[in-house]
Automatic annotation (TrEMBL), chain A:
Name the UniProt record assigns to this protein: DNA repair protein RAD51 homolog 3
Annotated Pfam families: Rad51
SUPFAM superfamilies for the chain: P-loop containing nucleoside triphosphate hydrolases (SSF52540)
Swiss-Prot/TrEMBL keywords: ATP-binding, DNA damage, DNA recombination, DNA repair, DNA-binding, Nucleotide-binding, Nucleus
Organism: Lupinus luteus
GO cellular component: Rad51B-Rad51C-Rad51D-XRCC2 complex; Rad51C-XRCC3 complex; replication fork
Primary location recorded for the protein, binned into one broad class: nucleus
From TrEMBL, chain B:
Domain RecA family profile: 80-255
Any one GO cellular component localisation term in the record: replication fork
Swiss-Prot/TrEMBL keywords: ATP-binding, DNA damage, DNA recombination, DNA repair, DNA-binding, Nucleotide-binding, Nucleus
CDD domains associated with the record: Rad51B
InterPro entries documented for this protein: AAA+_ATPase, DNA_recomb/repair_RecA-like, HHH_XRCC3_RAD51B, P-loop_NTPase, Rad51_C, RAD51B, RecA_ATP-bd
Any matching Pfam family: HHH_XRCC3_RpoA
Lineage: Eukaryota, Viridiplantae, Streptophyta, Embryophyta, Tracheophyta
Name this polypeptide is given: RecA family profile 1 domain-containing protein
Top-level taxonomic group: Eukaryota
């Protein structure tokens, strides 16, 4: 680690270098008074710099002291595997889709879902916000949801319909499969499902960035949140940008923060994206919006599309799942298997 | 909120002065930079930047509401539970009570199918007194193609609501509540929109109709990116207008013909697609909604009006609250009338297609 990498202001960094403090060692060897005099800064400021330097150098030194983790905060692949075994999924209520996703939308990951208008993106978003609340007795997470609406397409009437259908399914499940649970009727009420969805209406990209920054604090206060849904991540970033490089920078910074939230609080992040047309090899093709560099930002990418008269979901990108497609349908009760009459069995 | 001044956010004086000195005045300025860029630009340490940004972010973030609170607000505090009934029974049921407040509803269809008729009826419904099931408010009707006909408006009123319109002076009062604007260019339109924004709340406006958006935009711009961008800006403004005044906004759109039969595909679909193409190469044109896919994403509800085998249909092509239904309709002297209140459920992307008989020959030259 060099002085150039210290997270301090540019002018202080310049002063350090010009007065000969080129290595971290030289900073840590200097006394506080010396450093303050050499740099012509006050002593509290100098001590701030020393703190930064020593923090960075201990990170470097940890090489030797720890055998298992090479760098602080790192994790071996073996430990990750063990953790993944217990990782949590949020069901989509469509068994075929759950199957290709390995059980549902993964916690700790950022999943992007895109498709043409009217294919059912918002429907999947609302369904997930309801499903995350299925209590553990029924194979769910019993968590809460954050729904960030950038388009104004969130309809409470529809949430109520889906919530009611979800509760019906749960009580049917308890009657059929778990006689022991029969005594305790499903205690959930549609109102309580609605109460556990935190809704944010975002009206500009500035607000969207601010909100993602603020979520860390919000979730610390509301520990039960298990899913963040942004519907859609695209809308504001598509309208008022002239500087495309700036847009890419802001988007990737936002994606990074979302990823951090996902792993820090062990929650799922679902980003809904729109489509755009792209000219490839002399013909126009559909592709998800926000450009090529954005397509690297998400862990998983699911594309929804029409195949004949059926709605299909295709796993376009995923580090662990094989690319496959599954049929789903949007019913009055929410997202379901396409062989519609068959009831969805819960986990 | 994005325009909020950093100097008024209660940051420590030393930090907020640095922001001002670097000409970063509003929250938007600050948040349009990544934290590393700010560190360089402001010449302060990372920890200060992070704490300042998180402070700014917290103040700029919109407040959270639970969905329950949202529902209580909408259902209890708003007239007609936040929907403007169209008085077409089947359609109203499918839409949970009518055209919802606060969102953009689009009517798309070929010329002469009845879009303007539908708009006329809606503007009457919004101006009706509350005890007749209306919104008892004013209507702003932006008429780009000069298709608004007051005579027809009164005729629809007379036939549909004789009990009101036969009262002395009522026809005058109802028609007096509908304000028609005829902008000739997009910039004029934008200007009047900004004026409307202020007057919406004071004037008791309950409905905004734009007939048609396509005429406005297609007339002025060539095909291409600049048009999409201009359109994008206006859409986001219209949407925020709808949202904050909590009124329904109805926009009409035209159709254009597209040569070739294959719809657009994703790259992973390409294989199966090329096989299909060999079998039947068709050069028929078919109709698609104008204004492109970006616009189609932006509207919340899309109603397609079409004619197919001598029958007109109104289809719920995109809606977060209702299944894909198609209703046969007819236009009578009292306006649009549904022939069947039980819609036909459509399977697949058929719901988005726009048929137009007779007119098709015109495009098939």
């Amino acid at each position: 680690m060099e002085v150039g990498m210290l997270p301090i202001s540019a002018s202080k960094r310049g002063k350090l270098l010009s007065t000969g403090y080129t290595t971290l060692l030289s900073i840590s060897r200097a006394s506080l008074a010396d450093l303050a005099r050499d740099l012509q800064v006050s002593e509290p400021e100098a001590s701030e710099i020393m703190k930064c330097a020593s923090k960075t150098s201990t990170l470097d030194l940890s090489n030797g002291t720890h055998n298992t983790t090479v760098v602080n905060g790192g994790q071996t692949a073996w430990a990750m595997l063990n953790e993944e075994k217990f990782s949590l999924h949020i069901t989509t209520s469509c068994m075929d889709l759950d199957n290709i996703l390995g059980g549902g939308i993964n916690c700790k990951e950022v999943t992007e879902i895109g498709g043409v208008p009217g294919i059912g993106k918002t429907q999947i978003g609302i369904q997930l916000a309801v499903n995350v609340q299925i209590p553990p007795e029924y194979g769910g997470l019993g968590g809460k949801a954050i729904y960030i609406d950038t388009e104004g397409s969130f309809m409470v009437e529809r949430v109520l319909q889906i919530a009611e259908a979800c509760i019906e399914d749960m009580s049917e499940y308890s009657n059929h499969f778990r006689k022991d649970l029969q005594a305790s009727e499903v205690k959930m009420h549609p109102d309580s499902i609605l109460e556990n969805i935190f809704y944010f209406r975002v009206c500009s990209y500035t607000e969207q960035i601010a909100l993602v920054n603020y979520l860390d604090k919000f979730i610390t206060e509301h520990k039960d949140v298990k899913i963040i849904i942004i519907d859609s991540v695209t809308f504001h970033f598509r309208q008022d940008f002239d500087d495309m490089a700036l847009r890419t920078r802001l988007l990737s910074a936002m994606a990074l923060k979302l990823m951090k939230l996902a792993s820090k609080f062990c929650l799922a992040v679902v980003l809904l994206n729109q489509v755009t047309t792209k000219h490839i090899d002399g013909s126009f093709q559909l592709t998800l919006a926000l450009g090529d560099s954005w397509s690297h930002s998400c862990t998983n990418r699911i594309i929804l599309f029409w195949n004949g008269n059926d709605r299909h979901a295709f796993i376009d990108k995923s580090p662990s799942l094989k690319s496959a497609s599954a049929q789903y349908s949007v019913t009055p009760r929410g997202i379901r298997n396409s062989t519609s009459c068959k009831r969805i069995k819960m986990m | 909120m994005a325009k909020k001044m950093i100097s008024e956010m209660g940051l420590p004086k030393s930090i907020s002065n640095i922001f001002t000195a670097r000409n970063i005045i509003t929250a938007k300025d600050a948040l349009s930079h990544t934290e590393f860029e700010l560190m360089e630009l402001l010449d302060v340490g990372m920890s200060e930047v992070i704490s300042a940004i998180s402070h700014i972010s917290e103040l700029v973030s919109p407040p959270s509401q639970t969905a329950l609170l949202l529902m209580e607000q909408r259902v209890c505090n708003e007239s007609l539970a936040g929907h403007l009934p169209t008085r077409l029974k089947g359609l109203d049921e499918a839409l949970c009570g009518g055209i919802p407040f606060g969102v953009l509803t689009e009517l798309v269809g070929p010329a002469g199918i009845g879009k303007t008729q539908f708009c006329l009826k809606l503007s009457l419904l919004a101006s009706l007194p509350a005890n007749f099931g209306g919104l008892d408010g004013h209507v702003i009707y932006i008429d780009v193609e000069s298709k608004f006909s007051s005579k027809r408006l009164i005729e629809i009123g007379m036939k549909s609501f004789p009990e009101i319109f036969h009262k002395k002076g009522m026809a005058q009062e109802m028609a007096g509540r509908i304000l028609i604007l005829r902008p000739t260019s997009l910039s004029e339109f934008a200007e009047s929109l900004h004026q409307i924004k202020i007057s919406l709340i004071h004037q008791h406006v309950k409905l905004l109709i734009i007939d048609s958006m396509a005429a406005l935009v297609l007339g002025e711009y060539d095909c291409g990116a600049s048009r999409q961008q201009a359109l994008g800006r206006h859409v986001s403004f219209i949407k925020s207008l709808a949202e904050f005044s909590r009124i329904p906004v109805v926009v009409t759109n035209q159709v254009r013909s597209q040569i070739g039969d294959e719809p657009l595909m994703y790259s992973f679909q390409a294989q199966s697609h090329s096989r299909k193409k060999d079998n039947h190469a068709t050069y028929d044109s078919h109709l698609v909604a104008a204004l492109g896919v970006n616009w189609a994403h932006a509207v919340t509800i899309r109603l397609v009006l079409e004619a197919k085998s001598d029958q007109r249909f109104i289809k719920l092509a995109k809606s977060p609250i209702s299944p894909p239904l198609a209703f046969p309709f007819n236009i009578t002297s009292s306006g649009v009338v549904l022939l069947d209140d039980n819609g036909i459920e459509m399977k697949g992307p058929e719901i988005n297609s726009i048929h137009c008989q007779g007119q098709n020959a015109l495009f098939n030259f």
